[in-house]
Amino acid sequence: MSDQLFAAREMASSTSSFSPKSSPRGSRSPMAAPASLPRHDSTGTLKMTISAGKHPAVVNSGPFYLMKEPAAETELTGATNLMGHYGLEHSYSKFTGKKVKDSLSSFLPSLPGILDTPAHLTNSSLQSLIEKPPVFKEFVPLNHHQLAGFRLQHGPLPEQYRFQSQPEGTRRHRHQKKGDPLTPSYDPQSNNDFPLSSGVGLTAGSAGGVVGGVGVAGSGDGHEKKPHKKKKNDDERKKKKKEKKKKKQRHSPEHGGVGGGSGGEGTKVSL
Amino acid sequence: MSSSLEQLENHLETFIENVRQIGILVSDFQPQGQQVLNQKLQNMISNMQEIDKLRSPVQEVHVPLEVFEYIDGGRNPQLYTKDCMEKALAKNEQVNGRIQSYKAFKAGLLVELSHVFPNEMNRYRAVRELSDIN
């Protein structure tokens, strides 16, 4: 009994200040600090504030528990029209006002080839380029021996391997009517697709053969713009003039009687 | 920066045009075209050298990776910009809605607490005014 009393007195003396060291929870025990914080109270009564631990998350700053200082107000919040703040209203109206076409070819109309197919089908994706960048040191021009590897046999390629500037479904025929809805800017005399006329040193024989191939490929590019000014192909002009003459000769005996024929001829593309 | 981008664009167009010409030349190859083909191949390499030289001026241009997903899918990259702006606007409106809701809730709560605890709310307002002054 006396031992128990002695132990109780020891404990009372050691915990008279309510030290958290003696508490089973240690630093998490609340500490009593009677004179640490000023109290706005004129009644004269002794009041104590209790704070949790040595570094409390909540510092008592007034008569209300868990009362924190209000958060600092910033000028730019979600309540502001951020589009206007950053000057993007015009851009936003531009993108949302008019309909943006879904296909990549509409963004790059001047590029040849078929652009709208998914890149993973042809193993030419940009993602693969980022994941596995090509390793090279520098670009070196090909020497004579390396160029020998590019000696080709003459003759046309199979249809599947030929150069296609446009998907199959949108290819146009050579003789196109005016006002065609699919190719409003098509101009057969533009000769955008006759690259070999732009100053390449060709012999006459090869020019005829290659121009023929170009003509087949070029007739499909009615929707392309004219990024570069190119010289007109004289051979094509001559061919078209000959065809025009032939048609006139065919229709001349019927010109007086058949008004539809002349009207129809008028709607054809002027050459 | 814009001039270097334009220059890069021009070089890329020239390169693509050259490659297209090679494709047309090869589609129906004639023996007389071998010299032309060799010349065009050399031109292709010189174009690549010029494009490589233009790499450093555009080093600071950062492109979001999501744009490449659009391009690889054959979609217009302007759609990415449009989608970004629409998402930003939607998020802006959502956050604005939250802010307005919290403001309305605070006002309503203060009114109701003033009805239920008038003395405590007076003391609270006094403490807040004092902290604002400080």
From TrEMBL, chain A:
Residue ranges crossing the lipid bilayer per the database entry: none
Biased amino acid composition, Polar residues: 186-195
GO cellular component terms attached to this protein's record: mediator complex
Function: Component of the Mediator complex, a coactivator involved in the regulated transcription of nearly all RNA polymerase II-dependent genes. Mediator functions as a bridge to convey information from gene-specific regulatory proteins to the basal RNA polymerase II transcription machinery. Mediator is recruited to promoters by direct interactions with regulatory proteins and serves as a scaffold for the assembly of a functional preinitiation complex with RNA polymerase II and the general transcription factors.
Subcellular location: Nucleus
One Pfam entry name: Med19
InterPro entries from the UniProt entry: Mediator_Med19_met
Name of the protein described by the UniProt record: Mediator of RNA polymerase II transcription subunit 19
Subunit structure: Component of the Mediator complex.
Compositionally skewed regions (Gly residues) per UniProt: 206-220, 256-271
Compositionally biased region (Low complexity): 13-30
Region listing for Disordered, in residue ranges: 1-44, 151-271
GO biological process: positive regulation of transcription by RNA polymerase II
Keywords of the record: Activator, Nucleus, Transcription, Transcription regulation
Gene transcribed to yield this protein: LOC108675900
Recorded family membership: Belongs to the Mediator complex subunit 19 family.
Compositional bias segments (type: Basic residues): 238-250
TrEMBL record, chain B:
One of the protein's GO biological processes: regulation of transcription by RNA polymerase II
Assembly behavior: Component of the Mediator complex.
Species this chain originates from: Hyalella azteca
Source organism superkingdom: Eukaryota
Protein name per the record: Mediator of RNA polymerase II transcription subunit 10
Family according to the record: Belongs to the Mediator complex subunit 10 family.
Cellular location(s): Nucleus
Function: Component of the Mediator complex, a coactivator involved in the regulated transcription of nearly all RNA polymerase II-dependent genes. Mediator functions as a bridge to convey information from gene-specific regulatory proteins to the basal RNA polymerase II transcription machinery. Mediator is recruited to promoters by direct interactions with regulatory proteins and serves as a scaffold for the assembly of a functional preinitiation complex with RNA polymerase II and the general transcription factors.
CC terms in the record's Gene Ontology section: mediator complex
